[in-house]
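Run folding on both entries below.
>entry_1
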Amino acid sequence: MGKIKQGILGGFSGRVGTVIGVCSRGMAFMRARAMNIRNPRTEKQMAQRAKFELVQDFLSPMASLLRVGFRLYDQEQSAYNAAMSYALLNAVSGAYPNFALDHAAALISRGPLTPPVNALATATADSIQLSWADNSAVASAKQTDRALIAIINPAKGEAITYTEGAERVAGTQTVALWDHWAGDVVHCYLGFASEDGQKVSNSRYLGQITAGTAGNAGNPGAGGTGNTGGNTGGTGGGEEDLDPDA
């Protein structure tokens, strides 16, 4: 039974007939009641769930970074769910049941700030050196923009992330890798956020590297296209509000 807390013209919560009232982020919404599904395992539904799980596994280790990287899209949904929506639409390749994540098409940040250029990831025995050109005189870029960094290890379900990395003018940052990643393939991403955190750029995919071996990442785009001051990692635990059967 639904409850109306502000009179007949106010929002409501709960079920009333065929609609459900929801209050989120200070706003009231109504949505249709879900229909009973006689066969919850149709091929279309299973394909959608498989896509959802694939993207969820990729994004959840860097949930804290995505809250910064997709903050411009969190007005009507969480930033995490905005990242999920983008990846579902743009970064899944193949056909069910052989879906694959297209890492080069994925983003860790999305926005109008001037993105990195000439960015490169280079591996050493125990770290990855990220480098980029100082394009702080171009468009909206400023010297004080801070690097948004993600080094993602799909095999371990973990990520090392920076939400306030080196300044754009610095042109470089070293990311130390965990010892237990040695021999694993990791994927490298770089974006920028303004000093006040209000603007972000589209991120660039810098390619993949085998951890613990020296060399450059395969850089598909030549770079055209942690928490404060440190790195963080995670194994799942991302926000999950989207309906995989939608």
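>entry_2
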Amino acid sequence: MCKKGFNIVKTPIVSMCLLYCALVGLSTFQALNVQESVYETCKYVMLFWFLFVCCTVPEKDNLIKLMAVIGLMFGVIGAVQQIDFLMDGFGRKNTVHGLLYNKNLWSSAQLLTLPFCIYILRFSKKWKTIGIIAATGLLVSIFISMTRSVMVGLFAMTFIVSLFNKKIRKWSIVLAICCVVAVFIFGYKRFFDTQTLTYRFEVWSQTLNMIKDYPMGVGAGNWQIELANYSDGITTPDAFKRVFFAQPHNDFLWSFAETGIAGGLVFLSIFGLGLYYAFKTRNILVMCGVIGFVCNAFFSSPSDRSFHNMILMVYLSLVVPVVGKWKSKPIAIVCMLLCTTVMYLRHVDTVLLSKAHNWQLSVKEFSKISWFTTIDQQTTPVAYWKAVEYHKQKKYDKALDNFRIAHKQNHNHVHNLNFIGVYALQSRQLETAKWYFERALKICPGFELAQENLLKINDVYAGSK
């Protein structure tokens, strides 16, 4: 450990985190949707601030115990829900998601807390009891959920433990056998189902094409907008019409695509440094945690979730050689307050927008949404929802103005492209209308509304001859 007062910023892991945060911020200049990049920058500023806080905790065991208690809560809730799920005869498939949005996120969060629960077995009798209960509940829930990326992460953790700790190697082998047995009992078909893998490979392939076309990145938060430019290689039914892509299910490709090659390499280096110091200090806890996160990040998007990121920061802080307090400067405090405000506004906006898909928001309510929120979680522009409401009210001028604003927020949204084309067609701007319909069909060839509207233009041309 270093002496008290050691500068946190000078440690390699923290330096790379700050550099990545700076590159995310700089990617704003590459972005077509600036607000999304601003939000992503604020998210990473707050995340790395949390890393600073964790680094300055003098008693790291307290952090570990806290995460183990969270693991206990996750384990008990997960096990109870899964048992209820089994008793129901799998009648509510994929509905077990605990405290998070879906099964994959819930299972990956459980995986990340598992190493803490096992680590505290070395503490007092009370903590051993907590660890046993928590680990048992977590493993039961993970096995029944049968999330592939989580199972791969669990296999990897087991392998690491067996390499570096001979005393519990036999238990690692038992756990590995349990993993294999669980695959065949609870999810053989799901585990080896290739449909979702095919979808991922398609999206990954097009993301690689995006990286080739934009080596400097498309801007943080803009992958979800730009992917539609590469729709030719995506065969998912109703892609970009009813099925939208918020992330590529691979955090590493995501980072390269949005922040460029430089940003992607720095992002990789954060995990590389974490593993390097974990191996150097033979810190099995951190090895398991980082490897579990990496395995999950290769097939999913844990870095898009605050809770998963915070657990990763706790793991990294355990190998940052710092003791003592870090004195923040006034400018850093002001920056954090601004970022906190942005994050709060985004949260409020997200809750409000969740009603939009059920057409429960009025124009007045849409006006409450802040400048920092331009698209919802399905990449639909906020202005699009507002424009549709104006269209229903037959306020066509205001509707068209908002459809145009929506086009700036997401220029690849096929429904918005179709609406603008319809307004151009009604104004007899045939070439303009044709461009918008053809653009929508290029992104989504099976888009029936755009096909019908394009036929109307052809009929007009035919009638004028």
